[in-house]
Design brief:
single chain; alpha+beta; Glucose Oxidase, domain 1; 5 domains; eight-stranded mixed beta sheet; 31% strand
C-alpha cells in the first residue's frame, strides 16, 4: 500500500453540491459543499448580484466565489485527475479588530507514490495524483475512513466576518472584480488558500525543524538558505530552525521562479546613508510619490512636535518646522496614522518621510491620502535608532531611492525571498513569499488590497515543483497562464505543452483595430513563454492571440484582453547640466487636456512657467528655456486639478 498520512481528520459529510470547472480547463476542480441547510453555502439571506457574481443569496454568492477560484486554478494547472476541495463556512476565531479569515490545506500527503519525479519526498495529495495519473484517494479507497469523500483539499472560511465583534463592519466582498473597498476580497483569499492546498507550503515543522514522518517535503528541495548554502532537504533540524528566522536569506531556489522574477519584480527600495554598509532596507508606503532610481536626496531631520512624545509627528505646528523645508523628515511610529504623519511633514516643507517602527521588525506604512505627493518609507526600530544617533552627531544626508540592481523581494543572488521573520510565525513563516516583494504577490502572508486574479510568481513556483508538463497527459493547446499589467504594461505568460519544440507567433489588436503580428516566439525549454509588451499607449484596450505553427499551417489559439489604464501624472528631470543649457524634463500627462509646467524655488516662488496644452496624453520630453541659476528647485506639472512634483538641483 502507498504510504499515506492524514494531515487533518474530518467527520464524513454528505455531498450537497459539487461544481466542476468548465470543460476547457486543463484541470477539473470540484467544490464539495459540507454546510448544512440554512448556513454557509446554503445561507438563504437575499443578496443583490455583484460584479460578475450572479448569486441572489449570500450562500449562492459564496459558492460562486469558490467556483470562480476553482475555475481560475483549473484553467491554469494541468492534471488528468480531478481535484476535489471540500469546503464549509463556519464561525472562526475573531475579535472586533482582527479575525481568522479562513484556511485551506491538503487532507493527505503521499510518499513514494507511482509517477513521482522525486519519490523520497512528501507530496501534497493533488500534485501526487497528477504525477501518478490516477486518484490515490478514491471514495471507499483503502486507508480512508468509512464514508470519506476522498477529497484532496480541505477549506474552511469564517461565516461570522463583518458581524458585531468579528472584524466589525468589514465583511466579505463576493464580487469578481477585486473592487472590495473596505471589505475583504473573498476571491483573492480563495486563490491564496487554494494554492496552499495545491502545494504552496511545506509539511516540515519550521519551529522545530522536524520533517513530517521523518522525511522532507517536496517544498524543502527548493527552500534554500543563502547563509549556509544548504537546501532544507540537506541540512539538520537545528539548521532548519535557524533558517526559518534567517530574514532576508531564506529563498526559493527553483529555476522558473528565479528566471521570471527579473521581469516581474520591481527594483528594491532602499535608504542610502553615510555610515555602516551605506544602505538601509526600507519598505515603501501605500501612499505618496513612488521612489525612483534617481531618488530623493536631502538632510535627514528628526521632527519635533509640541506634544509628547515629540517625535511622532502627530501634532502641529512642528516646533522645528523651519528646519524641515527641503529636508527629509524622520518620524516615529505611533499615536496617529501614517498618512497624518506624512501630511504634517509635507505641510512643513519636507521632501520625503522616513517612519521608524516602534517594535522589532520591518514596517510598511499603510493608508491612503491622494494629497500626499512626497515619498514615504518605513524602517525597522534598530535602523531608526542608528539613523537618529547619526543625526545627533551632526548633519546627515540620505537618499530615498530604488536600488539599480536589487529586486524588491529578492536576494542579491536573484532568488526570490521567502517569509522568515524573527520570531517565527506559525502558519505564515517559510510557506509564503516575503512581504518585501513589489508588486505585492498573491502568496504573501497577508492579503493586500491591490491583488487581482493574476497568479503571478505562484505559477512559476508550481512549475518548479512539477505541476506543468510532467506525470501524465497534458493539454495539446497553448494554455494561457497570465495576462495582466506589470509595471504599467501588459505582461503575458503562457505554457506550451510541447516544451521547446513548439514555435508560435503572438498577435496584438489595439482595439478597435484588428490584429497585427508582434513576432515569432518559442518556449524556453520548460514549456514557459513570457512576453512583456512595453509598446502600448495609456488608456487603450488590447487583445492578444497566439498562433501555433504546425506542419499543416498556423493554428490560432487562445485570447487575452488587457486594459491599460491612463498614465498617472508624473515628472522627472532628465540628465544634463551644461552651463547655460535648457533644463529637460520627462513629463507624463494623463489626459488630452491643458497642462502647465512650473519651476519654483525652495521658498515656493514660481520662477518659470511653460504651457503643455498641445502635447496630449502620454510621455513627453519638455525643455524649459532660460535655465535658472545654480540652486535647488521644484518642478511641478499640473493638469485637471492634479499635480506631480520633482525636486532637482542645478550647478551652472
Amino acid at each position: 500500500m502507498i504510504p499515506r498520512s492524514f494531515l487533518r481528520t474530518f467527520a464524513a459529510a454528505t455531498l450537497l453540491t459539487a461544481l466542476a470547472s468548465p470543460s476547457f480547463a486543463a484541470a477539473t476542480i470540484t467544490i464539495i459543499n459540507l454546510d448544512g441547510p440554512g448556513e454557509g453555502f446554503n445561507d438563504p439571506t437575499p443578496a443583490a448580484p455583484v460584479a460578475g457574481n450572479p448569486g441572489t443569496t449570500i450562500g449562492q454568492q459564496r459558492l460562486n466565489c469558490f467556483q470562480q477560484a476553482a475555475s481560475i486554478w483549473g484553467a491554469t494547472l494541468t492534471s488528468p485527475v480531478p481535484i476535489q476541495i471540500q469546503a464549509a463556512f463556519n464561525p472562526l476565531s475573531c475579535t472586533a479588530t482582527s479575525a481568522v479569515l479562513g484556511s485551506a490545506g491538503p487532507r493527505f500527503a503521499e510518499f513514494g507514490a507511482p509517477g513521482s519525479e522525486f519519490p523520497n519526498y512528501w507530496y501534497h495529495e493533488a500534485l501526487a495524483c497528477k504525477e501518478a495519473g490516477v486518484d490515490l484517494t478514491p471514495i471507499g479507497g483503502p486507508g480512508l475512513p468509512p464514508g470519506d469523500n476522498g477529497s484532496d483539499i480541505n477549506a474552511q472560511f469564517n461565516s461570522s466576518l463583518g458581524n458585531a465583534g468579528c472584524l466589525t463592519g468589514s465583511g466579505w466582498y463576493y464580487g469578481f472584480d477585486h473592487n472590495e473597498g473596505a471589505l475583504i476580497d473573498l476571491l483573492a483569499v480563495l486563490l491564496h488558500e487554494f494554492a496552499h492546498g495545491l502545494g504552496f507550503s511545506t509539511l516540515t515543522n519550521g519551529s522545530t525543524g522536524s520533517y513530517f514522518n521523518g522525511s522532507p517535503s517536496l517544498w524543502d528541495k527548493f527552500l534554500y538558505d543563502e547563509t549556509t548554502g544548504l537546501h532544507w532537504d540537506q541540512n539538520a533540524a537545528a539548521q532548519r530552525v535557524a533558517s526559518s528566522i534567517n530574514t532576508g536569506n531564506l529563498v526559493w531556489d527553483g529555476p522558473s521562479v528565479t528566471t521570471t522574477a527579473g521581469t516581474f519584480l520591481a527594483h528594491s527600495p532602499e535608504l542610502v546613508v553615510p555610515y555602516g554598509s551605506g544602505k538601509v532596507a526600507v519598505n515603501t508606503a501605500a501612499f505618496g510619490a513612488p521612489l525612483t532610481l534617481a531618488g530623493v536626496t536631502g538632510q535627514a531631520v528628526v521632527v519635533v512636535d509640541p506634544v509628547a512624545p515629540t517625535a511622532d509627528g502627530c501634532e502641529t505646528p512642528f516646533t522645528n518646522a523651519g528646519a524641515l523645508a527641503g529636508k527629509i523628515a524622520v518620524i516615529d511610529r505611533g499615536t496617529c496614522t501614517f498618512v497624518v504623519k506624512a501630511k504634517n511633514a509635507q505641510n512643513a516643507g519636507a521632501i520625503g518621510v522616513i517612519i521608524v517602527n516602534n517594535a522589532a521588525g520591518a514596517l510598511a506604512p499603510g493608508g491612503s491620502d491622494p494629497t500626499i505627493t512626497i515619498p514615504t518609507v518605513g524602517i525597522t526600530l534598530a535602523d531608526g535608532n542608528t539613523l537618529k544617533a547619526a543625526i545627533a552627531g551632526g548633519p546627515v544626508t540620505v537618499t530615498m531611492r530604488l536600488n539599480p540592481v536589487l529586486l524588491a523581494g529578492a536576494n542579491p543572488s536573484g532568488r526570490v525571498l521567502m517569509y522568515a521573520p524573527n520570531p517565527f510565525q506559525s502558519g505564515s513563516s517559510v510557506s509564503h513569499w516575503d512581504v518585501s516583494a513589489t508588486p505585492n504577490l498573491l502568496m504573501e502572508p497577508a492579503i493586500n488590497a491591490d491583488l487581482t486574479s493574476n497568479l503571478d510568481l505562484t505559477v512559476d513556483l508550481f512549475r518548479d515543483i512539477g505541476w506543468f508538463g510532467r506525470g501524465g497527459p497534458v493539454a495539446t493547446q497553448l494554455a494561457l497562464v497570465a495576462a495582466d499589467l506589470v509595471n504599467g504594461h501588459p505582461h503575458l505568460e503562457w505554457f506550451s505543452s510541447d516544451g521547446a519544440n513548439q514555435s508560435m507567433r503572438l498577435y496584438r489588436a489595439a482595439l478597435p483595430a484588428g490584429f497585427e503580428r508582434l513576432g515569432d516566439l518559442s518556449a524556453n525549454g520548460t514549456g514557459m513563454v513570457t512576453y512583456d509588451d512595453v509598446d502600448v499607449l495609456p488608456g487603450r484596450s488590447y487583445e492578444y492571440q497566439l498562433g501555433l505553427l504546425t506542419p499543416s499551417g498556423e493554428r490560432m489559439m487562445g485570447l487575452a484582453h488587457v486594459d491599460v489604464p491612463r498614465a498617472a501624472l508624473a515628472i522627472k528631470r532628465l540628465a544634463g547640466n551644461a552651463t547655460g543649457a535648457a533644463v529637460a524634463f520627462e513629463v507624463v500627462l494623463a489626459e488630452d487636456m491643458p497642462a502647465t509646467l512650473d519651476v519654483m524655488d525652495t521658498a515656493g516662488r514660481r520662477i518659470a512657467r511653460q504651457d503643455l496644452g498641445g502635447l496630449g496624453a502620454g510621455r513627453h520630453t519638455v525643455s524649459l528655456a532660460g535655465a535658472p541659476r545654480s540652486g535647488a528647485y521644484w518642478a511641478r506639472v499640473s493638469q485637471a486639478g492634479k499635480s506631480a512634483t520633482a525636486h532637482f538641483v542645478l550647478v551652472q
